[in-house]
């Protein structure tokens, strides 16, 4: 009995059941970690104290009433765009064209305002511009859907290209209206002004309503159900008689409508003007990320967009006061997003160490440092993980074709590991889909 | 035949492999001799493929040892298998469609570069003269470049490569153009590519997993010629199969597996099909399924001369005719892949019919004949024709793994009514009913289906189809992978449906069950009907023979359900 | 006039060529890296820093050393981001689009930050950029041939050489064959004994490193050392477009990049057109690419399709 198996030392297993408590532990840990990392980065860059970062970070967010309104307003806009692309993603239609679709919506609005503003009543202008915004948004969203449905054109690449076509079209419009201008238009007539002395409240309410509607749409309507089935398994969809093409086009129309509304709100209510790069300003791409971070669930997306804006607004303030420039928030947001998406991995996968002892010994100094640094919550989560990994360390798999596996451990240790493992393997197997069971076909 | 014929090239001792609680192989001993053709015979699920996968490095045995040429071998990956000169052609080909056959064959092959050896060579070639020294220096400086070249492995000398492959092709008598792209190749040509790939990697032992399942009779003949040819060149060949006639035709010895255990290994020349069948299916198992006599049977569905093709474009169902009657269970027997799937799918409207008719007699309208060919799947479903198909991948079709029980139960019915909103209340009740009636073990009806065990998933699938009070219920492999108790639950359900007057079509693998459960059994072989027999009178081995006999002359006893086919 | 136009088109085109060669290598392994603009930003920072490091105070500098140092640093910075992308998408199996977009945001942010901070420190790259813009072949004649083919800085030729090598390696060597296999069907590649993870990592890092040189080239050659953030990331998207336009072949990419470069500079060279019409002209590269994308999906010819597993992370246990 000298079985010798060289297995990859680190083994990843997809969790079947995600422990919600643990998941939130990891998420909160990641959130705190990203604040910490951002603080360190900004301290290094600005050369000021940690305290400077924290004071201004939170001042930037909650400092004045207006800042709080700004926070909510920005959250609302990003939330709206993220909601628009969510049904597409749920259907596994990778629409990264939110930027272009919103921009076209904005263009629709700007076209009407520039034509009708001042000449007709504000109400007429606003309503017409809303209609045209939505129409433009739909057109821009449906084009890739049509090609996808018809010829299975790669939607990711096509929507990406259409973003830039939209930018150019908007630039064309701006130059057409104002050939000598600086690349932006501002409107004073035919736009939505303050309501009840507050310029933000309207948009926030609109977005709250849309969030509720989308929540219901995705979860409680037949349409939402159908698009989930299409996304989960196209075979099943075909099997139960869902017209996949119809669903794709219908969903992208919905996406276009929401993007159109977002564009309308940005032009008519927020900026009172249009600029090719400033109006949407990358929010279309941000929406894609937020939608993914929120697990395509409207409430999750709301939370994700709030936290994202939370970071970016805090960073803007720190950047301004620390004289770090206008690009500083992008860096902070990038770090934040990196940490959050990495944390998703640890929620969905379980890392198992084969031959764990030796590795742990090797990394012991590092682990010690980390355990000191980590907030308590993180620590307990870590422990849980570790217990499980030890237990399951010794499964034999069919997957040792991996070329760069490290053949470092002696046979004896291996064997011990396995014998230790075998006795207790059964316990956690309900929690995680261990090696995929393969039965003869 | 070589002189080593009696020596074992492979010896497997006490091999055990379990998947969870399922024992796939138990204490199997198997020997493969030099230059022989060994058939591994067994019913579906008898552990043939698992056993061979352990030789090919796909699985690693839980217990037991493998000896190659007398020395113990550790086969942990396909690469290891190649090292021991074992090559396997899987049922599902692992080829890259975009590449030519040639590129697929050489893919992943590692050319070794041994610099010490090269240096040695240069030293030896150096004859000491000035010219020799000069050349040696040149060659030394060229070494890194040569190494780099090997690393990048330039392959622009396509012709040269094709020539070296052509040698293999000619040697074994393959007929294939290696410069063609894989997507242009037919199934049998793809198989050839896989075989050449294994040979090119130096395989001495070639394992073919159900090689004939996807081939036409002519192609099978060609394949067997090649296999014999390889044998003459001293290769050992293992063919996994459950087709008796092929076993008799090609192999030297037959190893029979049943329920994961090795039953016997016999010489083909000393056995008969009859004996092999007995070894393969084993003793008759007593099942106690209550079978009632059909009452008030009327024709419900009649299929006439149905022909359709599978996804590869081959004929899957050829001229199949039968009638399903209300209040009876029509069993469909046959080796897997004999057209069962396509037959049921074409009735359900999911596969395109090439020719033939499917007529449904609608009980709601006084058994008025309706042509199902003109209806789409939804309309067919609304008529009451239900297909509860359990594909190989249970969650691939029919159920959505990530959705919970309720959502899965309403997959069929959600679109009813004109409301924009989903009605989750009645599906939820239904799901709870199914859970209770069929004793599905699940934490709640809110659990995603993918987290349930296979048996429970199947119960939900069947339960859902039954719940909608069908008039025709087609169940394909509904008990595949289920334990005995769950199986009985399903059988009872089918019997209940039968008593309610539903025309049940049951596609099964276990002949014992088919005989005990069905009223009539339709036997398919290679997409054709080789007989329709009365389940109460037929014997198991007779069905076994029908399953492997390609019908020469069609003998139809179907309509009267009397007697059985001639042999 | 025409000669200048073509000359400039080639020069600007090389930015796209670097980016698209890098992205092609990455996409061939089945990874859609939307972080190319961000990676080019990082490459720009690395390249400028590397050039300045080797340039020192401007005495006793060899053009070769400065350029080499710029290339190495640009590759290092770009490669680092490629490694980050690879780690997230290959090891952590994050969504490729999301990871790419984050890298783009991050890279643009870092470039913006860096450009303001060097602005504060009064660092300029004009002098060092002269080493990059001057012709690789020294003084060249004024005839059209020398102007178009011989008058460029070293990095232009480096771009073409890299693209040619990439084209040969991808189409003509076993390494390229294996890489294509990984992008087409990682399961089959795995079964054939190819180390899928290794190929994916190497292609992500190498591709990003090459794209990184593109960023450095833009600021050190095209803009003559003046750092204007916000331009290079727009060009990065065109590089991604060029990958599609060139049907995943760096060889075609060489010609495509010149066409793209031509279209990119055309508006500023045309007279008699209003600003608005010039904006319309800028659509052409994107529109043509979108058109190519639709046409290849329409004809559905297998050789011209995007790599089959593009955008799908490989997890062996799901085999």
The CATH C-level name of chain C is Mainly Alpha
What is the 3D shape of chain C? globular
How many domains of chain B, as an integer? 4
Main β-sheet of chain B, in a few words?
6 strands, mixed
CATH superfamily of the largest domain in chain B: P-loop containing nucleotide triphosphate hydrolases
Number of helices of chain B: 18
Number of strands of chain C: 0
The total of helices of chain C stands at 13
Q: What would you call the structural class of chain B? A: alpha/beta
Order of helices and strands of chain C: HHHHHHHHHHHHH
Largest contact between chains: A-C, 64 and 66 residues
What order do the strands of the largest sheet of chain B run in, or round the barrel if closed? 6-7-8-3-9-10
CATH top level assignment of the largest domain in chain B: Alpha Beta
* Overall CATH architecture of the largest domain in chain B: 3-Layer(aba) Sandwich
- Main structural class of chain C: mainly alpha
Describe the structure.
The complex is a heterotrimer of chains A (about 450), B (about 575) and C (about 325). By secondary structure, chain A is mainly alpha-helical. Chain A folds into 2 domains: about 10-20 and about 350-430, no CATH class; about 50-320, ABC transporter involved in vitamin B12 uptake, BtuC (Orthogonal Bundle), CATH 1.10.3470. In chain A, about 70% of the residues lie in helices and about 5% in strands. The two termini of chain B are about 35 Å apart. With about 575 residues, chain B is of the alpha/beta class. Chain B has 4 domains: about 5-105 and about 175-280, P-loop containing nucleotide triphosphate hydrolases (Rossmann fold); about 115-150, no CATH class; about 300-385 and about 470-565, P-loop containing nucleotide triphosphate hydrolases (Rossmann fold), CATH 3.40.50; about 400-470, no CATH class. Chain C is an all-alpha fold and about 325 residues long. Chain C is built from 13 helices and no strands. In chain C, helix 3 packs across helix 10 (about 195-220). In chain C, about 60% of the residues are buried. The model of chain C has no long low-confidence stretch (mean pLDDT about 85). Chains in contact: A-B, A-C, B-C.
């Amino acid at each position: 009995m000298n079985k010798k198996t060289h297995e990859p030392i680190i083994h990843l297993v997809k969790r079947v059941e995600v422990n919600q408590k643990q998941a939130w532990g990891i998420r909160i840990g990641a959130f705190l970690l990203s604040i910490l990392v951002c603080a360190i980065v900004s301290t290094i860059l600005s050369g000021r104290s940690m305290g400077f970062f924290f004071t201004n970070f939170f001042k930037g967010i909650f400092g004045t009433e207006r800042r709080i309104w700004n926070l909510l307003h920005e959250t609302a806009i990003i939330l709206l765009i993220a909601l628009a692309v969510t049904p597409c993603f749920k259907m596994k239609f990778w629409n990264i064209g939110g930027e272009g679709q919103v921009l076209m919506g904005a263009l629709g609005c700007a076209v009407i305002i520039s034509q009708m503003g001042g000449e007709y009543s504000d109400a007429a202008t606003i309503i017409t511009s809303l209609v045209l915004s939505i129409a433009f948004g739909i057109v821009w969203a449906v084009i890739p859907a049509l090609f996808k449905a018809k010829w299975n054109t790669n939607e990711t690449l096509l929507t990406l290209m259409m973003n830039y076509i939209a930018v150019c079209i908007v630039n064309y419009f701006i130059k057409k209206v104002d050939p000598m201008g600086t690349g932006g238009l501002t409107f004073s007539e035919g736009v939505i002004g303050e309501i009840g002395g507050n310029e933000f409240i309207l948009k926030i309410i609109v977005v709250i309503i849309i969030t509720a509607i989308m929540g219901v749409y995705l979860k409680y309507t037949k349409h939402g159900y159908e698009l989930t089935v299409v996304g989960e398994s196209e075979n099943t969809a075909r099997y139960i008689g869902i017209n996949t093409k119809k669903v794709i086009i219908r969903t992208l129309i919905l996406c276009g409508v929401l993007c159109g509304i977002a564009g309308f709100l940005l032009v008519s209510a927020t900026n009172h003007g249009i600029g090719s790069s400033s109006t949407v300003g990358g929010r279309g791409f941000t929406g894609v990320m937020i939608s993914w971070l929120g697990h395509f669930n409207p409430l999750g997306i709301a939370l994700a967009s709030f936290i994202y804006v939370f970071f970016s607004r805090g960073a803007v303030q720190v950047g301004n006061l620390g004289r770090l420039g206008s690009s500083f928030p992008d860096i902070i947001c990038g770090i934040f997003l990196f940490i959050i998406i990495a944390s998703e991995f640890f929620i969905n996968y379980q890392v198992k160490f084969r031959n764990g002892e030796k590795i742990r010994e090797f990394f012991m100094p590092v682990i010690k440092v980390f355990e000191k640094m980590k907030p308590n919550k993180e620590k307990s989560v870590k422990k849980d993980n570790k217990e499980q990994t030890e237990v399951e360390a010794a499964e034999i798999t069919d997957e040792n074709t991996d070329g760069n596996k490290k053949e470092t451990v002696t046979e004896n240790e291996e064997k011990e590991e396995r014998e230790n493992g075998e006795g207790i393997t059964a316990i956690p197997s309900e929690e995680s889909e261990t090696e995929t069971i393969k039965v003869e076909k | 035949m070589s002189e080593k014929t009696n020596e074992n090239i492979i010896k497997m001792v006490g091999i055990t492999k379990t998947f969870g609680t399922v024992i796939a192989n138990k204490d199997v001993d198997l020997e493969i001799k030099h230059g022989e053709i060994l058939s591994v015979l067994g019913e579906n699920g008898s552990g043939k493929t698992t056993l061979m996968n352990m030789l090919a490095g796909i699985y690693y045995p839980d217990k037991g040892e493998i000896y190659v040429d007398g020395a113990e071998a550790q086969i942990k990956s396909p690469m290891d298998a190649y090292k021991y000169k074992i090559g396997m052609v899987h049922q599902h080909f692992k080829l890259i469609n975009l590449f030519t056959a040639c590129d697929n064959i050489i893919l992943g092959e590692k050319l070794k570069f041994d610099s010490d050896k090269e240096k040695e060579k240069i030293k030896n070639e150096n004859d000491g003269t000035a010219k020799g020294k000069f050349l040696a220096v040149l060659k030394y400086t060229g070494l890194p470049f040569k190494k780099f070249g090997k690393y990048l492995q330039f392959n622009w000398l396509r012709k040269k490569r094709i020539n070296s492959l052509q040698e293999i092709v000619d040697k074994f008598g393959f007929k294939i153009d290696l410069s063609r792209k894989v997507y242009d190749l037919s199934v049998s040509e793809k198989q050839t590519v896989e075989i050449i790939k294994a040979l090119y990697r130096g395989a001495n032992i070639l394992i073919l997993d159900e090689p004939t399942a996807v081939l036409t009779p002519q192609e099978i003949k060609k394949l067997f010629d090649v296999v014999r040819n390889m044998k003459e060149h001293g290769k050992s060949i293992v063919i996994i199969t459950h087709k008796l006639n092929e076993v008799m035709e090609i192999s030297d010895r037959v190893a029979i597996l049943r329920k994961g255990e090795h039953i016997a290994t016999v010489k083909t020349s000393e056995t008969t099909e009859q004996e092999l069948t007995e070894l393969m299916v084993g003793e008759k198992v007593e099942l106690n399924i209550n079978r009632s006599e059909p009452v008030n049977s009327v024709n419900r569905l009649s299929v006439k001369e149905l022909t359709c093709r599978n996804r590869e474009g081959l004929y899957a169902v050829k001229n199949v005719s039968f009638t399903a009657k209300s209040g009876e269970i029509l069993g469909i027997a046959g080796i897997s892949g004999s057209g069962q799937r396509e037959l049921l799918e074409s009735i359900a409207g999911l596969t395109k019919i090439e020719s033939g008719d499917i007529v449904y007699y609608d009980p709601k309208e006084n058994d008025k004949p309706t042509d199902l060919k003109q209806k789409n799947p939804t309309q067919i479903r609304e008529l009451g024709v239900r297909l509860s198909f359990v594909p190989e991948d249970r969650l691939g079709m029919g159920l959505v793994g990530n959705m919970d029980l309720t959502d899965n139960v309403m997959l069929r019915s959600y679109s009813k009514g004109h409301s924009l909103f989903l009605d989750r209340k009645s599906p939820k009740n239904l799901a709870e009913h199914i859970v209770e009636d069929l004793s599905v073990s699940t934490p709640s009806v809110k659990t995603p289906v993918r987290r349930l065990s296979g048996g429970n998933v199947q119960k939900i699938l069947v339960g859902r189809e039954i719940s909608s009070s069908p008039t025709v219920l087609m169940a394909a492999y509904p008990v595949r992978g289920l334990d005995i108790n769950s199986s009985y639950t399903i059988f009872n359900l089918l019997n209940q449906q039968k008593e309610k007057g539903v025309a049940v079509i049951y596609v099964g693998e276990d002949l014992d069950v088919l005989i005990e459960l069905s009223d009539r059994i339709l036997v398919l072989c290679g997409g054709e009907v080789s007989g329709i027999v009365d389940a109460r009178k037929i014997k198991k081995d007779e069905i076994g023979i029908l399953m492997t006999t390609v019908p020469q002359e069609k003998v139809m006893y179907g309509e009267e359900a009397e007697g059985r086919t001639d042999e | 006039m025409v000669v200048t136009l073509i000359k400039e088109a080639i020069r600007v085109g090389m930015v796209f060529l670097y980016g698209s060669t890098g992205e092609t290598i990455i996409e061939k392994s089945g990874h859609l890296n939307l972080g190319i603009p961000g990676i080019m930003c990082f490459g720009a920072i690395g390249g400028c820093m590397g050039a300045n490091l080797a340039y020192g105070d401007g005495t006793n500098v060899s053009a070769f050393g400065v350029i080499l140092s710029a290339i190495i640093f640009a590759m290092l910075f770009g490669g680092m981001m490629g490694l980050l992308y690879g780690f997230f998408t290959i090891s952590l199996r994050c969504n490729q689009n999301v990871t790419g977009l984050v890298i783009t945001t991050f890279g643009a942010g870092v470039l913006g930050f860096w450009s303001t901070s060097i602005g504060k420190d009064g660092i300029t790259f004009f002098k060092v950029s002269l080493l990059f813009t001057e012709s690789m072949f020294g003084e060249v004649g004024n005839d059209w041939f020398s102007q178009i083919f011989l008058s460029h800085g070293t990095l232009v030729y480096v771009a073409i050489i890299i693209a040619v090598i990439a084209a040969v390696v991808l189409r003509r060597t076993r390494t390229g064959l294996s890489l294509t296999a990984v992008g087409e069907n990682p399961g089959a590649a795995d079964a054939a004994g190819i180390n899928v993870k290794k190929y994916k990592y190497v292609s992500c890092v190498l591709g990003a490193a090459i794209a990184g040189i593109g960023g450095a080239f833009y600021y050190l050659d095209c803009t003559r050392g003046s750092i204007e953030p916000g331009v290079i990331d727009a060009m990065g998207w065109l590089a991604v477009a060029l990958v599609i336009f060139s049907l995943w072949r760096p060889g075609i990419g060489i010609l495509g990049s010149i066409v793209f470069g031509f279209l990119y500079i055309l508006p500023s060279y045309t007279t008699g057109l209003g600003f608005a019409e010039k904006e319309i002209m800028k659509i052409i590269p994107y529109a043509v690419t979108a058109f190519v994308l639709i046409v290849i999906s329409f004809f559905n010819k297998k050789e011209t399709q995007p790599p089959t597993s593009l955008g799908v992370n490989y997890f062996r246990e799901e085999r």
